[in-house]
Design goal:
Distance between the termini: 36 Å
CATH topology of the largest domain: Glycosyltransferase
Mean pLDDT: 80
Shape: globular
Radius of gyration: 27 Å
Strand order of the largest sheet: 1-2
Protein name: Terpene cyclase/mutase family protein
Largest sheet: 2 strands, antiparallel
InterPro entries: SQ_cyclase_C (IPR032696), Terpenoid_cyclase/PrenylTrfase (IPR008930)
CATH architecture of the largest domain: Alpha/alpha barrel
Keywords: Membrane, Metal-binding, Signal, Transmembrane, Transmembrane helix
Number of helices: 16
Number of domains: 2
Helix content: 40-55%
Length: 490
Amino acid sequence: MLTAARLGATSLAGLLLAGAASAPALADTASPAATAPASAPAAQPAPAELYGKGDPTYDGVWRQSLALTALAGAKVTPSDKAVGWLTGQQCADGGWPSYRADTAACDPKTEDSNATAVAIQALSALGGHQEAVGKGVEWLRNNQNADGTWSFNPGNPGDANSTGLAVSALLTAHTDPAAVAKDGKSAYDGLGGFQLGCASPAAQRGAFAYQPGPDGTLAANGLATAQAALAAAGGGLLVTSTDRAESAPKALDCPTGSTEKTVPRAHSAEAATAYLRAQLAANGQHLMQALPGAAPAPDFTATAWAVLGLIQAGHPQEAASAADWLAGNGYDWAAKGKSGTDPSAAAAMLLVAQAAKLDPYNFGGTDVVHLLINAGPAPKQVPAAAASAASDNPDGTKAPGSGITEADDNSGFSPIWLVGIGLLIGVGGGLLLSLNRRRGAHQQDAEAKPDASPAVDKPATDQPEQGTSDSGKPEQGTPDDGKPEGDPKK
């Protein structure tokens, strides 16, 4: 079916990306709180074992974990060195910092719940790392706040993003978040404390706030909602849910005059995904971000997490158009970061393709599997499909549309559709012309032979003339949201 998202993906991509080009390159945030100190340290070179060429100071473990998780989902066996680099970043107490150049030392204050949460998911997806996963889970237990939440770094107030990531990590490690509690408050209790209930304006109900404001009020945040929704729906980065609801996610049911601030856990995922669905529909099937001092721009990261959350919650049909939008517009985000391919963005694209059951070797025309593979050390083994795709697309960095050779079932607007439409129009025009000429021949015959028998007794034997048509292929179009320099994850 030709959706509006597919029709518009190619034509709008240039405009959308032109507007986003002035934004910072990376948009793979885990927490808006993780900002650089006033005097940031000198940029560090990326180790050869790491995915991506950019400074790993603020996102080394984050991007390595996302890359390894996505590749595991694609049945790619990564390099031992790439996996060893990630396990080598873990501190003795089980936590991971964002990055440490000196693995002989570890400052507990720099350990990062977001890095720890995604590292747990990566090692769980790879298998064979239960000791490291178990130590990571124990670190999460030991650094949970008294209200059941997690902060980016230990000792700070919790936030929805970090808490959602922790819940997803626990689920991935087969640990019940309801049983991980501090002072009687479980991980689910902590997550629920950030969700807007019936006391909030109708348009914001079901959303998650990043943190309460100074006066304790909650304000809807797109990325916080997307990451928390995935956790509330019981999932992690590798979405494998096959649940499929018969209807769209149901908005929070609030009786008239209700002042209830919290959302029952049983309704949390539905309420959050209903909010996300409404936001996607209102913004052309993507979420928006508004950084201080900058015009609102498409938020690729939040959109990717929203797709994962919707699918995990059993609403793949509600996520399809947003997945299409990412396929048609995410190439520059993933392939043209400040330092070339952004492995976090490429991994997000691959995770979306896998969750949405779209072709990762032709995701809007781009082979996102090889785009990610080529951003890091050579893998030990790739599946046959990857080997075959590599022979056709060795660098994995083709722009949207350039790799499409069949009717487009991913995203964007394939030229094959135009060819088909042109042929249909041509054939239809030819048939119409033939019918008109046949009708004219009958009329002329009737006028010339008024005494002739009725047509039903003597069928006309004239042959209609053949109609002609032509059609051509249009030229294909080629359609950095991100983080402040100090925070590659924002």
